[in-house]
Every structure is written in structure tokens, then in C-alpha cells.
Amino acid sequence: MKYDVIIAGHSFAGLAVASQLRGSILLIDPKPIGEGQTSACGTLLGVPQRLGLMDSVLQAHPFLAFHTPTRTERYDVQEHHFCTFDYQRFCEGMAGGTDAQILQAVVRGVEGDEVVTNRGRFRGTILVDASGWRGVLANSVCPRYTPRERMSYGIETVARRKGENLCFWYDPNLVPEGVAWFFPIGEESRIGVASYVGDGHLRPHLDIFLDSLGLTKANIHGGYFPWSFRVPTAGKLFVVGDAAGQCLPLTGEGIRPALYFGQACGRIIQRILEGKLSLRLGLDEYRAFVLHHRGLYRLLGFFQRLLVRGPVGMVNRLIALACREPLRSFILRGYVAYADPERLTPLDRNTRVNHQQRHYAPVIA
Ligand SMILES: Cc1cc2nc3c(=O)[nH]c(=O)nc-3n(C[C@H](O)[C@H](O)[C@H](O)COP(=O)(O)OP(=O)(O)OC[C@H]3O[C@@H](n4cnc5c(N)ncnc54)[C@H](O)[C@@H]3O)c2cc1C
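Above are the sequence and the flavin-adenine dinucleotide SMILES. Below is the predicted complex in C-alpha cell form.
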């Protein structure tokens, strides 16, 4: 039972890694593909466009809106539309770009080259942790690899209300040290609140926010999302997506980075499998590639701290400035250029498999 590559987690990061690999690949996740959405699933429209996943898009957004206690600013993104998408359809589309085997199991950790799960042990030449903020493999190699105190926490619900813009509220009366959002998805909207300091007691804030909009909550989902960018290797492990703290501070955008770094990681691993690179050099190359992007993380981390600790008046003025020219174009260009969707590799339609054809890994009792 030895696989070329074993990947823990098959959400954005895990599927992006797998999409670049050929060989015997095992994806392990406790949930079926596309289940267990935590996210509001807002990203640049260029992402599903580039990957050939436009059928997952629920709504395109040419404007963002930022609400503060004293004003509302509209931010024009017509050059680079944002969108909201359907998590299940997106993940199923991504999974269609890989013929990896899938095992529904809980990964507990790693011992040597064996991944330990609640359904047996599985050996892999190369191991990847894409298990999100839990970092189940990385934490078992380096304890406290994903420190909880360096994470935001967010929850959201879906309500029947249409809208046009992706809206954000920076208002301490609604969520202290946090943000609230309203993301339209056609006939409905995803409405949520998050705390940058990881405060897990957000339900009363969500209730107040929904009340202010005249709405009531339905099912709630959410979780942690880290804002501490880390060295993305742990021993011989590749670590990708939220597990490596690749979610952006301030904006909380983690899907595009997970896909971008995930594909880069997958391409490097494929070269190792083809004998073009040693594992050691592959780990070094991936680490160097990821850390090359740390400037934006530092900058956004600085603005996140300012938002949490700075006087409300100053925060309001900064948001207003950022929404006007010439800063608006400058910020948007820089923000899109980082993890530019154009640099994603379109999914390989030739390897596409549908659910009926998918191989499920035999379980070791
Ligand atoms: C409320 C909320 C709203 C958000 N909204 C947005 C947004 O609109 N846009 C955006 O870009 N980002 C958003 N984010 C951040 C974004 O969701 C994450 O950055 C992104 O999902 C990271 O992808 P990932 O694949 O690294 O991790 P995840 O999507 O968290 O996936 C981790 C996977 O690992 C699996 N897993 C967990 N434990 C184990 C285990 N023990 N064994 C095996 N598998 C395991 C999970 O089941 C899951 O499939 C939001 C986050 C939250 C919490």
C-alpha cells in the first residue's frame, strides 16, 4: 500500500496539488468532496474562468462596498470582477481534473513515511498537508506549527435577500476587532461576521448584524482562518493553503492563494516523481517560491493590526482614501497581480474523471 503522494485534505489546496500530479495519488479527507463548506466563496472571477469552472459561479460582482460607522464607500473592480461561487460544484470540478484515489478518513498524524488515519496507515513517498487550519500532519511533526492565537474566526449563514455588491462592514459596534460581510449569490446572500483576534463567540454579533438588515439566520457554518504566513515545509512535508497560513491577512482571502500555491507545489512534486529533482531540492524550491510572496502578507498584516487597534476615525479615512484614485487602481493592480489567476494552470480535461469512474482507496482495517 505505498502511494507516490498522499495528500491530507481535499478542499481548495489539496485538489490544486492533486490536479498537477500523475501517478498513484491518495487524497484523504473525513468528508466527501465538496461537503463541509466553511467559506463565503468569494474570489476573483478570473479564478473559475481560468480553471474552466464557470458553471460553479453564482454571481459576478463589479463593485465592492465598504461600510464604516460614518460612511459607505464604493470600490470599483470592473477591470477585475469578483464573483461568488458554489463550493460543491467548484470542488467537484477540481476533482474532475485529477484521477487521484480518495479515502474518506480522519488523518491523525504522520509516523516516518506513514500517514496514520482512523482507517489504517498508508505509506507515501511524498506527503502533503492540505488539511486547513488544523494542519494535522504538520502539527504532528512540529507541535504548534499552526498556533491558534494567530488565526481569525468567522461564521456565516445564508438568507433570502438579493444584492449587487460584495459588501464589508468595519464597525466596532457590529463586530469589535473584526469585519462583517454580505455576499450576494443570486436569489440569496451569504452573511457573516469574523473576528481578527479569533474570538469564537460570534453568534450574538451575527444576530445583531442580521437584525440590522431585517433578516434571520438559518444554518451556520464557519471556522478559523489563519493570518500567520509560515515556512511551508515541516520536516519532509509540503504544507499548503490554510495549513501553511497562506490565507491573506485583512481581506481573509484564502481560496486564490490555496489554489495558486497548491498548483505550484503540485508541479514541483511532479518533477520529483519524474526524477528531475530530489525531494530535498523540491522542498527547498517550494519553500523559496512561497516565501518570495511574504511582502504582501507583511503589508496586509500591518493594516489588519491598524484596523484592530487604530482609532476609528483614522480607519475610516484610510478606507475612503483606498477607494479613490489614484490609490484605487494602484491597490487593485497590486492585489490581483499577487497570485494572478492568469498564472493558474487550466484543469487538464484529458485526465478528467467523473464520480462514477472515481477510484476509492481500499481501506486497511
Ligand atoms: C467564515 C469564512 C468565510 C470565508 N470566506 C472566504 C471568501 O469569501 N473568500 C476566500 O478566498 N476565502 C474565504 N475564507 C478563507 C478560506 O475559506 C480558506 O482560506 C480556504 O478554504 C483554505 O483552503 P484550504 O484547502 O487550505 O483549507 P480548507 O478549505 O479549510 O480545507 C481543509 C480540508 O481538510 C480537511 N480536513 C480537516 N481535518 C482533517 C483531517 N484530520 N484529516 C483529513 N482531512 C482533514 C477538511 O475536511 C477540508 O476538506 C473564509 C473562511 C471562513 C472561516
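The CA atoms of residues 34 and 87 lie 6 Å apart.
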